């Protein structure tokens, strides 16, 4: 549908038709989200129907991917039926295995038919769907467990009442996020639809926090800036030029510098689509995150998938991971990382590598993905060693802060590391990735190994002196004495209240 329109427009603006369709669907999300916000607050079923119908319209009519919709819809209904029938821990396990296999088949078909191609198809939305379906299955399972066995996060998102198919599909196909995300939890979505977080418990009236439209427009205009940057800077910093003999002939410093710039420019496309989808979610009223404790202003970043400033100025690999593709990170954390940890044990390197492995598997089967995520796991371990062994030597004893030069050096090393490692993610193939790293003398990889091996030996963790240990023990004893004194006063007060309230009971014995 609309083939002639998008075909003519694609030729006129010299922009790929598939990307033009996707961008048009994201832009249409804004007026549709504004209208969605105006639907009656006391009719949640109308909102659920509108969400599903709107997504079907965008996927079939605008994006022109009826086959893709069949994949998404079929997988969603299958998961709903499985969790309705299978109880216990095998329900979410079957769902996780099933949807990951389905997505993997889609990845392989795309990889064989369009190797190293960037034509958009249903695999992108299916990756978002995989996160939603697996987290939803675990939440249903948590709703059937003893609440005492759950973490605070699991308790907040446990689904205690199995949802109807309409409510479930509304969550799966929430139209501002159906194409590029973000992923979010089912209970957060239901609270938004029912407006429970905005409803006055006494009067039942809805009080919308201020700043929704402004926050939406900020994301929208930022996405436009990212698109403009991608269109102007992107072609001049093509990562494929690293395979050209002209690049290889450059001095090492210039080769390394180009890799830094090319990796930075490649992030514009993610910034553009993620911020555009985030703005549409906020326009619909989804994304309220309380108030800023310092300014008191309303925060509308609950559906944010990227914190651009925090990522571009991050001083550690962990900071970058926490602020990049945050919806996926949350899914990996709560549906993978904490699900593979044995009860009563602490997460270790095995859980970290398992999480990175699932992340690479989720992205697809290009060898470059696995090279990057394996390297990133080792870089993360090296960063933890630097923090535990080196940082305390430069941190202020009074404030615990490190000097500015230390922070700036950390930011420079972190950005250089991630830009170097992400080349394999962009080049996709094993041969090309190794070739580029070889031309850079595997500098960052050697640095990671050196840090891992040498830092614990050269900078052992300082143990507290005997005097510091004695001071710590004195503080503990003081805190213990104060706690006992407060408890004694509280018990005495309670005794007096009880004795005065129930004089016939006589004296109240206390332990």
TrEMBL record:
Its main location: membrane. It is a multi-pass membrane protein. PANTHER family: LYSOPHOSPHOLIPID ACYLTRANSFERASE 6, PORCUPINE. This is Lysophospholipid acyltransferase. InterPro entries: LPLAT_7/PORCN-like, MBOAT_fam. Keywords: Acyltransferase, Membrane, Transferase, Transmembrane, Transmembrane helix. It is found in: Membrane. GO terms for molecular function: acyltransferase activity. It comes from the Eukaryota. The chain crosses the membrane at residues 20-39, 51-70, 158-179, 219-237, 249-268, 406-428, 440-459.
């Amino acid at each position: 549908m609309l083939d002639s329109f998008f075909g003519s427009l694609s030729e006129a603006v010299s922009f790929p038709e598939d990307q033009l369709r996707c961008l048009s669907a994201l832009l249409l999300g804004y007026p549709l989200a504004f209208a969605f916000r105006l639907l009656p607050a006391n009719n949640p079923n109308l909102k659920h129907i509108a969400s599903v119908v709107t997504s079907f319209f965008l996927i079939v009519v605008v994006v022109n991917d009826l086959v893709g919709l069949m994949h998404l819809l079929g997988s969603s209904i299958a998961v709903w039926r499985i969790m309705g029938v299978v109880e216990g821990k095998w329900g979410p396990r079957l769902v996780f295995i099933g949807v990951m296999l389905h997505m993997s088949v889609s990845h392989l078909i795309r990889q064989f038919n369009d190797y190293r191609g960037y034509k958009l198809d249903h695999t992108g939305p299916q990756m978002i769907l995989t996160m939603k379906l697996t987290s939803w299955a675990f939440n249903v399972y948590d709703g059937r467990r003893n609440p005492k066995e759950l973490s605070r996060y699991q308790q907040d998102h446990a689904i205690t009442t199995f949802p109807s198919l309409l409510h479930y599909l509304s969550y799966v196909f929430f139209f501002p996020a159906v194409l590029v995300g973000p992923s979010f939890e089912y209970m957060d979505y239901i609270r938004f639809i029912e407006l429970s977080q905005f409803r006055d418990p006494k009067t039942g009236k809805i009080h919308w926090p201020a700043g929704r439209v402004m926050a939406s427009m900020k994301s929208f205009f930022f996405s436009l800036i990212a698109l403009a940057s991608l269109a102007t800077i992107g072609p001049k910093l093509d990562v494929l030029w690293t395979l050209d003999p002209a690049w290889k002939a450059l001095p090492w410093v210039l080769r390394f510098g180009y890799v830094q710039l090319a990796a930075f420019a490649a992030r514009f496309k993610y910034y553009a689509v993620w911020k555009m989808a985030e703005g549409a979610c906020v326009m619909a009223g989804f994304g309220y995150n309380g108030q800023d404790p310092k300014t008191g202003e309303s925060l509308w970043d609950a559906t944010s998938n990227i914190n651009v400033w925090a990522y571009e100025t991050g001083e550690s690999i962990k900071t970058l991971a926490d602020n990049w593709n945050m919806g996926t990170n949350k899914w990996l954390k709560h549906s993978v990382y904490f699900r593979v940890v044995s009860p009563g044990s602490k997460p270790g390197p095995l859980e970290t590598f398992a999480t990175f492995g699932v992340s690479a598997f989720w992205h697809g089967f290009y060898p470059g993905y696995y090279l990057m995520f394996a390297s990133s796991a080792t870089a993360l371990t090296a960063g933890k060693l630097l923090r535990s062994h080196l940082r305390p030597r430069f941190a202020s004893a009074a404030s615990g802060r490190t000097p500015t030069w230390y922070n700036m050096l950390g930011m420079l090393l972190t950005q250089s590391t991630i830009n170097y490692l992400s080349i394999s993610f962009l080049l996709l193939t094993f041969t090309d990735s190794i070739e580029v790293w070889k031309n850079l003398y595997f500098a960052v990889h050697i640095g990671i190994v050196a840090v891992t091996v040498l830092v614990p030996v050269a900078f052992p963790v300082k143990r507290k002196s005997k005097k510091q240990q004695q001071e710590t023990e004195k503080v503990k004893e003081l805190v213990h004495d104060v706690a006992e004194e407060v408890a004694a006063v509280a018990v005495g007060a309670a005794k007096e209240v009880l004795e005065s309230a129930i004089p016939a009971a006589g004296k109240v014995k206390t332990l």
